[in-house]
Structure formats: structure tokens, C-alpha cells
């Protein structure tokens, strides 16, 4: 696998013509790599990128393990960006692709709650709900929401879809715990596909820790929840401490995450 040299004429820079998938390093080991790899392949197909024969699971694992060993990573997110290269004939479907790896190291176990965030809704913009909305591509909505959150002293912002239902946060997905049921916005509502989220909810379901329900959630649902968890493939896992005037605990989600970690030893 070879990376294309990045220039100012790069299509990722000029047009956002790229997809991004996040790989996870825990205690010095690459975890969930197969899930992340198949998400990468699906994302590239959705963007109609030419997938090189060299982009095998084994090749990408070898590449990422080299980064882990060389940089002595313990707990980190590997942001794997694949972009379409230039094509002098203008046929984008035949353009070669390249990649860029960005590393976000974490001081603690990435399967633990990294911190608490206060959130609120953005009303000025909405997110799309088409089949591209579930993958990580260039998003002006995310840029606006990130700045909005910063300007309003929020840790994160909640984005709604055109029907004014909860889609996701700026960087991840939200889980709403009410009694023993965890409600998650459907992907058709504008939520991201998330290997990290899918692994967690599968564990919770298989061990009967809670009932999992994919749902269409109004903004009011956030005020009914007992606890809210934010899972971001890009940044980690966070407890939601407050939305508007309601404060939330994170005891039950903390216990579920602890059980998940213990099962992975």
C-alpha cells in the first residue's frame, strides 16, 4: 500500500472528496479491526471510489500495527482518511486513491468514559438522512456545530434531521437509557454507522444488560432519559451530564462499560 503525496490540488482538500474510518488501539493492540475494515470498504463503495487490490484486511492491519509499534501507542484512535487522487482525463471512477493516517492518543482506556459533556440542540441547521449520511465524509454541518458548541460553552451539540428528530451529535451517536431500555436513533434518521457503538450494544444485548431499541426520537426524548451516553469513533466515549435544564447520572452506563472491558481481557 502506497500513500499518494498530498498537494493543494488534492481532491480531499479542494472538494472534501474523501471518506474516513477510525481504527482503535487498546493496551497496545489493534481491536475491532475487521469491523472497521469492512466499514471502510463499504464507505469507499458508497463514494464510488476505486478500491485497490492491495487494500486487504491483512495489508491494512500490517500498516496500522507498524504505526502502533513505531510510535509505541497504548490507547489511541487511528483516523484513516482515504481520498481520491487527481485524474488528468477527468474520470473520477478511475482515479487512484491514497490514504493519510492521523493519530489521536488517549491517556486512559478508550472503552471507558473519557469525561462528561454538556449538550444542547442546534435549531439553525439539520442533517441529511440519505445513504451517505451514515458514513464519515466532509460535513459543513459538523464544522458549524463544533463552532456553535464552543461559542456556547458546550462539550458537544445535538443535530436534528429535517423532521426535527434526533440524528446524532457532531462527532458521534447518542444512546438514551430509560429504565432498562436503551434507545438509539436509526441510521435512517441521520445517525452514523459506528463499529464501536455496534460492538457495545451487541455486548449489552447478548448479556441481557438492557433492551436495545432503534427508534425515531423527538428532542423531548432527551428529557425523559435517565442517562445518556455519547459514543464517538473519532474521540471516544463520554457521559452526557446536562441537556438544557436537566442533569443526568452515568452510573448504569459506567457499569455496562466496565462489564464490557472485563469481558475483553
Please describe the topology of this protein.
Blueprint: H1 11-15, E1 18-26, E2 29-31, H2 33-46, H3 57-71, E3 76-84, E4 97-105, E5 113-127, H4 140-151, E6 156-161, E7 166-169, E8 173-178, E9 181-185, H5 195-206, E10 211-215, H6 221-224, E11 227-232, E12 236-243, E13 246-247, H7 251-263
Parallel strand pairs: 5-6, 5-12, 9-10
Antiparallel strand pairs: 1-2, 1-3, 3-4, 6-7, 8-9, 8-11, 11-12, 12-13
Structure description:
This protein is an alpha+beta fold. It has 2 domains: 95 residues, 2-Layer Sandwich (D-amino Acid Aminotransferase, Chain A, domain 1), CATH 3.30.470.10; 151 residues, D-amino Acid Aminotransferase, subunit A, domain 2 (D-amino Acid Aminotransferase, Chain A, domain 2, Alpha-Beta Barrel), CATH 3.20.10. It is 28% helix and 33% strand. The chain contains 7 helices and 13 strands. Strands 5, 6, 7, 8, 9, 10, 11, 12 and 13 form a 9-stranded mixed beta sheet that branches. Strands 2-1-3-4 form a 4-stranded antiparallel beta sheet. A hairpin with a 4-residue loop joins β6 and β7.
Q: Are there runs of 5+ residues with pLDDT below 50, and where?
A: none
Query: Major β-sheet, in short?
Result: 9 strands, mixed
- Compute the number of helices: 7
Report the CATH topology name of the largest domain.
D-amino Acid Aminotransferase, Chain A, domain 2
Rg value? 19 Å
Query: Structural class given helices, strands, pairing?
Result: alpha+beta
How many distinct beta strands? 13
CATH level 1 class label of the largest domain? Alpha Beta
Mean pLDDT: 94
Q: Please name the CATH architecture of the largest domain.
A: Alpha-Beta Barrel
Outline: globular
CATH superfamily caption of the largest domain = D-amino Acid Aminotransferase, subunit A, domain 2
Gap from first CA to last CA: 32 Å
Amino acid at each position: 500500500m502506497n500513500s499518494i503525496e498530498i498537494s493543494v490540488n488534492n481532491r480531499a482538500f479542494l472538494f472534501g472528496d474523501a471518506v474516513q474510518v477510525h481504527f482503535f488501539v487498546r493496551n497496545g493492540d489493534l481491536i475491532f479491526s475487521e469491523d472497521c475494515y469492512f466499514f471502510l470498504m463499504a464507505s469507499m463503495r458508497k463514494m464510488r471510489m476505486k478500491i485497490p487490490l492491495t487494500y486487504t484486511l491483512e495489508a491494512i492491519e500490517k500498516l496500522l500495527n507498524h504505526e502502533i509499534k513505531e510510535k509505541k501507542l497504548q490507547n489511541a484512535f487511528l483516523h484513516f482518511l482515504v481520498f481520491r487522487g487527481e485524474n488528468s482525463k477527468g474520470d473520477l471512477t478511475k482515479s487512484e486513491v491514497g490514504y493519510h493516517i492521523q493519530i489521536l492518543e488517549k491517556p486512559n482506556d478508550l472503552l471507558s468514559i473519557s469525561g462528561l459533556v454538556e449538550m444542547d440542540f442546534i435549531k439553525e441547521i439539520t442533517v441529511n438522512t440519505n445513504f451517505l449520511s451514515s458514513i464519515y465524509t466532509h460535513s459543513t454541518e459538523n464544522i458549524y456545530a463544533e463552532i456553535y458548541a464552543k461559542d456556547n460553552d458546550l462539550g458537544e451539540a445535538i443535530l436534528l434531521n429535517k423532521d426535527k428528530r434526533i440524528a446524532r451529535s457532531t462527532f458521534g451517536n447518542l444512546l438514551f437509557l430509560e429504565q432498562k431500555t436503551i434507545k438509539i436513533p436509526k441510521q435512517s434518521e441521520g445517525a452514523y454507522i459506528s463499529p464501536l457503538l455496534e460492538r457495545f450494544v451487541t455486548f449489552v444485548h447478548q448479556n441481557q444488560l438492557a433492551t436495545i431499541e432503534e427508534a425515531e426520537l423527538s428532542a423531548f426524548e432527551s428529557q425523559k432519559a435517565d442517562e445518556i451516553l455519547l459514543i464517538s469513533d473519532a474521540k471516544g466515549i463520554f457521559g452526557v451530564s446536562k441537556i438544557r435544564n436537566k442533569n443526568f447520572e452515568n452510573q448504569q452506563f459506567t457499569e455496562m462499560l466496565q462489564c464490557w472491558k472485563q469481558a475483553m481481557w
